[in-house]
Amino acid sequence: MRYVYPFREGDGSDRRLLGGKGAGLCEMTRLGLPVPPGFVITTTACKRYYEGRKGLPKGVMKQAAAGIRRMEKETGKKWGSPRDPLLVSVRSGAAISMPGMMDTVLNLGLNDETVAGLSSSSGDERFAWDSYRRFVQLFGKVVFGADDSRFEAMLARARKEEGADDDSGIGAAALKKLVRAFKAECRRASGRAFPSDPGEQLELAVRAVFESWSGERAKVYREKNGITRDIADGTAVNVVAMVFGNMGGDSATGVVFTRSPGDGSRRLYGEYLVNAQGEDVVAGARTGSPIAELKKAMPAPYGQLERTCARLERHYREPQDIEFTIERGTFYLLQTRSAKMNAAAMVRTSVEMKSERLISRDRALARLDPAMLEQLLHRTIDPQAARGARRLAAGIAASPGAASGEAIFDTRRAAELGAAGRDVILVREETRPEDVPAFFEAAGILTSRGGKTSHAAVVARGMGKPCVVGCSSLAIGTSSFRAGGATIREGDQITIDGSTGAVYAGRMPTVEPKMTEHFRTVMSWAQKAKRLGVRANADTPEAARLARRLGAGGIGLCRTERMFNGADRIGTFVEMIMAPDGASRARSLKKLGALQRRDFAGIFRAMAGLTVTIRLLDPPLHEFLPDPAELESRIRRMESGGGRGLAAARKMLARARELAETNPMMGHRGVRVGVTYPEIYRMQVRAVFDALASQKGKAARPQVMVPQVCGTGELEHVRQIFDEERRDAERRHGRRLNVAFGTMIEVVRAALVAGDLAGTAEFFSFGTNDLTQGTFSFSREDVEAKFLPEYVEKEILERNPFQSLDADGVGRLVRMGTEAGRKARRGMEVGICGEHGGDPGSIRFCHEAGLSYVSASPHRIPIAIVAAAQAAIAAGAGRRSRAR
Amino acid sequence: MRYVYPFREGDGSDRRLLGGKGAGLCEMTRLGLPVPPGFVITTTACKRYYEGRKGLPKGVMKQAAAGIRRMEKETGKKWGSPRDPLLVSVRSGAAISMPGMMDTVLNLGLNDETVAGLSSSSGDERFAWDSYRRFVQLFGKVVFGADDSRFEAMLARARKEEGADDDSGIGAAALKKLVRAFKAECRRASGRAFPSDPGEQLELAVRAVFESWSGERAKVYREKNGITRDIADGTAVNVVAMVFGNMGGDSATGVVFTRSPGDGSRRLYGEYLVNAQGEDVVAGARTGSPIAELKKAMPAPYGQLERTCARLERHYREPQDIEFTIERGTFYLLQTRSAKMNAAAMVRTSVEMKSERLISRDRALARLDPAMLEQLLHRTIDPQAARGARRLAAGIAASPGAASGEAIFDTRRAAELGAAGRDVILVREETRPEDVPAFFEAAGILTSRGGKTSHAAVVARGMGKPCVVGCSSLAIGTSSFRAGGATIREGDQITIDGSTGAVYAGRMPTVEPKMTEHFRTVMSWAQKAKRLGVRANADTPEAARLARRLGAGGIGLCRTERMFNGADRIGTFVEMIMAPDGASRARSLKKLGALQRRDFAGIFRAMAGLTVTIRLLDPPLHEFLPDPAELESRIRRMESGGGRGLAAARKMLARARELAETNPMMGHRGVRVGVTYPEIYRMQVRAVFDALASQKGKAARPQVMVPQVCGTGELEHVRQIFDEERRDAERRHGRRLNVAFGTMIEVVRAALVAGDLAGTAEFFSFGTNDLTQGTFSFSREDVEAKFLPEYVEKEILERNPFQSLDADGVGRLVRMGTEAGRKARRGMEVGICGEHGGDPGSIRFCHEAGLSYVSASPHRIPIAIVAAAQAAIAAGAGRRSRAR
C-alpha cells in the first residue's frame, strides 16, 4: 500500500487522498513554482491509524524515510547531519480546510549536533539556536502536550533579562539556556527524555498530527461546518524541507490573498514580516506590514509573488490565499488554497472574474455559497461597534437581521407597546400561536428554548423579523432575565442579531443592507440558469412585496391562519371557536371572511400576474386559545380578586380542555377541522373567490390547497365545498373565476395514494416539514431540543432532516408521490413548501426529482434562486460528462 | 337496461344484483320449490334512483307492468280486477341481509273495488277487509310516513268496541270503518287522497322501498355492521304474488331455522301462527306456537316443510332461516337465507355438517365468523340474570369477559385492595401507564373516556382483563360516579361485561366458558389449514401459558415496559429515572435487571421450544412518572399540610417537566431512549442472555427487537451493545447463547429503508399500530374520540384504520418493507404485532402479503388461527379458480 507521495508525484486534483494542502503543494510543484521539496503522507494512512487502534500502518515510516532520502538529493542537505542538516516542517492538511484546528511542527530534525551544523551552514549561531528553541517549544506542546504558557513565561523572563523588546533581541547564549530549560519542561510533561534522533522525532510528529484529527477542537469544527466522514475522514501529513524567513533582513514570511477577502477588489491583500517564521504571522505576536510595502522593500521577490498570484488564479480560477517565505532573497511558496471571503467579496469576485474571462457564467454561479447571501439582505450590527460591545449571551440564529428595543416579557404588553410605535424585543422562554399578535408588533424576538424550527423561529422567519432562539444561558423571569452576570429588566434596551445569535445589552448601531450592482448581476444570471421555479412563503402583502423584490416567482405557501392571529382579529377567531351555536359561529365567520377577503386582495395585488397558493386553515383550534395552565392561574387570580370575566374564562378553560390533545401534531387539525367544521373552509374559499373578483387589471392566479390530507375522501369533501362556492361566486360576480384546487402532500399516506389524489387535485405541494415528522415519527419541537443533536454527533443520522431533506426516506416519498401524481395527471405542477425550500442541498434534490418549484421564506429567496441555478448547472455538467 | 327479472329468469347466485331475498326467491323457483310468482327490481335500479336525484330510472315501471302481466298469467288472477284481483307484496332486500331495517308493503293492489273481488274470490268478507285494513295501515306508514301509533290507537278502540281479545275478533263492518278512518289518517299525513290505482300504488311503494335504503335506521345498521358501498349499494325490490296465511284455520304462517341457532343441534326450530300474516309473527303481536306442533296440526304441509328444509340445506350447504305461509292447506315458501346463529351453534354446525358430509373441511372453516369465537372464551354474565338486571350504562366493549367487584376510584387503593385479595373494578376517566400496577390487581377496568385502542383497552387486552372503556354517560368524581340515575360510591359492588360494554350495579352471576369438543375440532382443522404463523402478544408467564393453551405458536411481542409497571418494581424504575448520577442509575438498573431476568426466565419456561420476541423499552421515560398536574396538586397539599417528601416531590415534578413533550408519540422514546441511555438497553439485553442461560431442558428461542427504529444508524448502535453483551454472557456462562436480533418496522422511514435495515436485522416485526399513526398522522388517542367516527360515517374513510389494516397506505409500506427486506436477506422472518394481528381482515392481508406470522392478544389467538386458515383457503380457492 502506498502511503507516501513526493510532491512531484502526487495528483494535485486528489484532495481526498492528499488533503488540501498536500494537493496544492503537488500541483504547484507540477506547475514549476518554487515549492521546497517534500512529500505527503496520505489521509488513508490516517484512516488506517484510527481503524487499527492507533498504530501507524505498516510501511508508512519506511516510505517516509525514502521520501527524506529524496529530499536530501534535491536539497543537497543531510538528514541528521552535524554539518548541513536537512530540517523539515510537519504539517497537517485534511481534504477540507480546517484552519488552525490541527497541529504542525516546524524545524524538525534539530538536536544538539545538527544545531551546530545549521549554525555553520547559515553562518548565524543565533538563528540556529532560535530555530532550535522554536522546535523544542512546538514539539513539546504538540507531541508531549506540554503547557505552552510555561514556555512563554520562560521566554518572557529571558527577554527581560536580555532587555529585549521582542524575541529577536534574545542572544544565542540565552537561547541555549532556554533550549535546556524547554527540554526539561518537556521531560516534566512526558516523563521521558527529549528525542534527539530525527527519525524518532518525525514518527512522533506524524502520530501527533494524526491525533490532532480527533482532538476536541477539530471535532467541534467539523460538526459545526457539516464536515462529515463522507467528505473528509482523516488528515494528510505534509513533510516539507524547511526554508527560513528568519535568516536576517533579506528574509521574510507572509500571507497574501490574490483579491481582497473584505470587498473582493482585485489587488493583493495581506501582510508580511521581515526576519520571521510563518508562525509569527499567524500567531499575531508581531504586527505585519501591508503587503504593498514589500514591493519597495524586496522588489524582486515581490515581482515573483505578483506573477505567482496571477498564475495560481488562472490555474485554479478562484482567488487564492497563499503562504510564502523569502529566504535570503529567494522566494518560496508554502501553501495555496481558495480564499475564504465574505458575501460581498464572494459576489464581486464572481462578477469580476467573469468579466475578466477567467471563469464562465456557470462557474461564477457554481462557486457561490448560497447560504452566505443572507448576509447581504439584512440590517446588521455595525462591525465597528460590535467589536467592543458587551455580548450577554449567544443563542441560535433563527431569523436573520439585527434589531434593538426594550426587552418586554409579557406578550400582551409587547403587542401594545409595539402597536404604540415603541421598539420592542419580545423575550420569552418559548412562544405559542397565541403570542403571534406580539410578533407582528415586535422589532425582534428572543427565546431561551427551542431550535431553528421552533414556533418562534418559524413564525419570525415567515414575517422576516430578526429572531434568536434557544438562548439557554438566559434565566428568564416574569419581568427580567439574567445573563452573563447582568440583569436586564423590563424596558431595558437590548439588541439581538438574528444572523449570528448574539444578544447585547443596550442599543447597538446597525447598518442598512445594500443590494449592490454585483448582487443584482449574479441574481439575474441565476434566474436565467435555473430550471426550478422559486416561490415564497408569504402571508401578508408586505412579505409578498419583499419576496417579489427579491425575485420570487409567486407565492407557494400563504398560511391563512397567520392572518387570524393579527391583534385585530384573534378575538373574532376565538369568538368563533367559543360560539355556543351555529348562528353565532356564522356571525363570527362572516366577520372573519370580510377580513380575509381584504387580506387576500392585498396579496393578490402585490403578486399581480403570478401564482398565489393559499393553504386553508391548518392548526388545531386549541392553538388559538390560551394555554390551559395559564387560564387556570388567571381564573385562580380572578377568584381571589373579583369576578369580572370569571364565567367567560371558565367557559374558555372548559373549551380549551375539551379541545386539548395528547399529540396535537397528529390530532384534530388541517382538513380534519375542515371536515368537522365545513363552514370554516367555506368561508375561506369564498373569501378567495371574492378577493379575486375584486381585482382590477392584471390579476394574480390564486390556487387553494388543502392541508393534512390523507386520502381522496377528505379531498373530495372539500372539493365539493369549493365547487359550490365557485358556482355561487361566479353567479354573484357574473364572470368566470379561475382558481386551481390542489392538495398538500404532507401526510405520509397522501404520498402513497398520490395517484388517486391527482384525480381530484390539480396540483400538489409537498409539505416536507410535516412529511419529515411523519416519516421519522419525530416531533420537531420535541426532538430538536432532546436527542437530534446527539444523533448527528454520534453520526446515527448524517444531518438534521428538518434542515436538509432526507433523500432516502422523505425524498423517496416525494419521488413516489410526484411520479404517481403525474402519471394520473400529465405535467401536473408539483412543488414543495416549508423550511427545506430554502436549503441548498434540498433544492438540489428537488431539481433532480423534477419538481416544478420550491417555496421558501422571503429572505431565503435569493439563496433558493442561486441554489436552483447551481442544481441546473450541476445536472447539465453531469449530463455533459455522461454524454462524453 | 334491464331492471326487472321474473323469479324464473333471475340468476340465484347474483345477490349483488338481485339482493339476498330476490336471489333466494329466484333460486328456489329454479329448484321447483313452491314460491308464489313474482319478480325482482334490481339493486341497480335503486343505485340509479339515487344517482338521478331520486327519479325512478326510465323503463322500470314499464318492465314492472310486464312482470305483473306475467304474474296474472301464472296465477290466473287479474291486476285491479273487481272479481279475482291479483294482490302483491312489495319487499325490500339488499345484497347483505339487513333484517327489519327497510320497508315492506303487503296486500298491495287493494282498493274499494278489488276488495270486493277478494271478498268474493275468498268467500270471506272479513278476511278481505282485514287485508285491506292491513294494506292501508302499512302503506300509510311506509309511503306517507303516517304515525303508526295513531292507527294502533284506532285499532285498539275498535277491539274494545267489538269486545275482541285480538284483531281477529274485529268484524267486517268495524274493519270497513277502520279502513275509512285509516285513509283519512293517510290524507292528513300526506295531504293527498289515498291512491286507488294499483299501478300508482306499486310505483309509490317501490319508491318508498328505495327511500328506506337511506333511512336513518338502515344507515346506522350498515355502519355498525361494516356494510360498505363496495359490498352493497342499494336494495332490490321483490314484488311477490300475495298468498294468505290469514284465510282461516287451515292457513298459517311461520319462520323456521333448519338447525337451532341457539345450540346448533339438528332439528327444526321456529314458530308459526294459525290464521295470520307474516307481519304478525315478526311483530310479535301474537305469540307463535313451536314449530313441532305444526306436525300434528297440519301434517301434510309440515312434511313439505321438512323436505324443503333438507333440500335447501343440501343446496345452500348452510343452515337456513325460512319464511313460509300455508294458504288453505297449500304450502308456500316466501324467503330463505343463511341462518344467523350464536358462536356455539356456528361451531357445532360446522363440525356436524362436515361429519354429515354436507360440507368439506375447508367450507366448515370458511363459514365461521372468527370474531364470534371470542364469545366462547370468556366468563359471561348469566343470560338468565342479565335479563332482569339493572344496566347502569353501556360503553365500548374493550376487552372481553365479565367481572364483578368493588368500584375503586384511586389507583393506589385499587392496587392495595386487589393485592389484599379483594375483587376490585378500577374506575377512572382514563388511565395512564402509572396506573398499570392497579391493572395487575384489579378484576376489571372501567373508564369513561377513550376508544378501543386507548391505553386502558390495550393494556387490559394484553393482560386478558375484562374492560369497558369510553362509557361517556358516567359522571366520575373522586370517589363515586353517577349513571342511569344511580350513584355508585367507592366500595359499592358493580359488574362490567367487556364483551358487550354493559355496566351493572351489584354483583351479577357469571358463567364459566367451556371449551367444547366442537370448538377443539374446528381449531385443530384451522391449525392444519393455515399457512401464517400465529403468535401472541404476552408480557407475563400467565399470559404466555394462556396463549399457548389457546394455540399460539410463540410470542411475537413481549413488551418489557409492562414488567416495569408491576407494583414491586415501578418504584425502582422511577428511582432509575430520577438517579442524580451514573452510579445510582447503575444501582437501580442492576436491581431491575435481576427482576427482568426472572420475568424472562418464567416466560421462556412457558414457551419452551417456541420463539419469544422481546421488544426493548419503548415508551418515553416520562410515562413512568406521575402526571405533572397531579404532582403539582400533591405538592400544593404537602405545602399546606407539612413537608414530608416535599423536596422529593418537587424534584420529581422538575424531572417530569424536563421530560415532558408536546407530542410524546413522536418524541424521545423507543430506540431514541436506547441511544441516549444505552445502559437501559444493555441491562435488558443482558437479562435476556442470562435468562436463556438459566433454562434447563428444551429452551425457548428468544429474539430481541428494537422499537421505533428509523434507520441503520440506530440499529447498528444497539446491535453493538447486543453483540458485546452476547460475548460477555457467553464467556460468563461458558456456552453459546443463540438470540436473534431484529427490528420493529413501525416508523414509516424504516419501511422505506428496510433493505438497509436487513443488513443488520435478522428479522422484521411490523408494528402496525404506530405505522398507522405515522402513515395517517393520526394520533390514535386523539382522533378515535374526535373525528374518526365522523370520517367513517361520512365515508371519508371506509373503516377505522386502527381496527382494520389500511391496505392502500399502511399495507403498501408493509409490502414494500417485506420485499426489500427479503431481497437483502433471503427468507427473512417478517411478522406483524399489535392490534391488527387479531383482526380477520388484516390477517387476510398479512397472508396475501406473504408475512411469516401475526401476533395477537392471547384471547384473539383462536380468531387469528381461524382467520389465517380462511385466508389460506381463500387463496387456495383463488389459485384453483385461476388455474381453471
Molecular shape of chain A: elongated
Rg of chain A, please? 32 Å
- Name the chain pair with the biggest interface and residue counts per chain: A-B, 49 and 49 residues
Low-confidence stretches of chain A: none
Could you say which structural class the secondary elements and strand pairing of chain A correspond to?
alpha/beta
Q: Helical region count of chain A?
A: 36
Helix content of chain A: 40-55%
Q: How many β-strand stretches of chain A?
A: 31
Neighbour order of strands in the largest sheet of chain A:
12-22-21-14-15-16-17-13
Q: What oligomeric state is this?
A: homodimer
Report the β-strand fraction of chain A as a percent range: 15-25%
The biggest sheet of chain A amounts to: 8 strands, mixed
What would your notes on this structure say?
The structure is a homodimer of 884-residue chains. By secondary structure, chain A is of the alpha/beta class. In chain A, strands 12-22-21-14-15-16-17-13 form an eight-stranded mixed beta sheet. In chain A, strands 24-25-26-27-28-29-30-31 form an eight-stranded parallel beta barrel, surrounded by seven helices. In chain A, strand 27, helix 28 and strand 28 form a beta-alpha-beta unit. In chain A, helix 24 packs antiparallel against helix 25 and helix 27 crosses helix 28. The longest helix of chain A has 25 residues. Chain A is elongated and about 105 Å long. The first copy, chain A, starts with a strand and ends with a helix. At the A-B interface, helix 26, helix 28, helix 29, helix 31 and helix 32 of A face helix 26, helix 28, helix 29, helix 31 and helix 32 of B.
